[in-house]
Specification:
This protein is an alpha/beta fold and 305 residues long. It has a single domain, classed as Ribonuclease Z/Hydroxyacylglutathione hydrolase-like (Metallo-beta-lactamase, Chain A), CATH 3.60.15. Helix content is 32%, strand content 18%. Helix 7 packs antiparallel against helix 8. The relative contact order is 0.15. The model has no long low-confidence stretch (mean pLDDT 89).
Amino acid sequence: MEEMTGIVRVPVLFVNAYLVETNGGFALVDSGLRGIGATLIRAAVEARFGPRARPGAIVLTHGHFDHAGSARALAEEWDVPIYAHRLEWPYLTQVSDYPPGDPTVGGLLANLSRLFPRGGSDVGPRMRPLESSGEVPGLPGWRAIPTPGHTRGHVSLFREADGVLLAGDALATMDQESPLQLLVQHRQLRWPPAPLTTDWQAAQRSIEHLATLRPQAIAAGHGLPMVGSDVADALSEFSVSFAPPAHGRYVHEAARADERGLVYVPPPAADPVGLALRACGVGAVAAAVSMAVRRQFRRARSRAG
């Protein structure tokens, strides 16, 4: 089985959003990067449901810039609510920044994380809390499962009827540390995006809990979906063998957050690579490249509008 019934993956550069069909409609899970995410999601909605279609709701697994970046624009355009766990609200209202990224965990994504923004995405007045019961408004038959670790208020979504798991960034289905794997996206279970995971012990517990669900399909925020009778065993084996990175700021001590947002971060780890980049002025070059990419996103959005 190579596809999940009633689910459309919308790739937005390096991150996924999902259109999830319901009885008589659909919902959007995550929204990709700001600008280009809205452009690509609009196109996917039109292709699947027609030019005037709109979802019943937008559901966010968490508030990082690559998952919530286009939520406000789409919610305002469609006039729909945005649902997220209450522990993500400080970042989605810009009351608090997320903990600093950790480029010292190593790998390609870690080095790229030096360019990532710390703040969440201001999603505006349409935000609503996910129910503590696990029910997901706009997604009947789905359950929101708290899976903290990557962020404090991260949730995954599970459809018990056929065992489909939308894992967000509780885990990945590709190796994001390898430049080659970022291109080919070979399917494999991997830890959550490492430089932005700020509680590795909680992340491990979340993966262990997801393994008890025995999912038949896993669609994550990063990587291609994994579908088939061997998925449950693969996740079980992954949960048993899971180990955090060998080093990094949050590997041995977690950041702490509550309903107000960020409370504590451990001291930064030694970062000789970062010091060398700053000394060579590479940081300024990287910032210029990042600005150029953002300009391209804005142009694409303008052409689409």
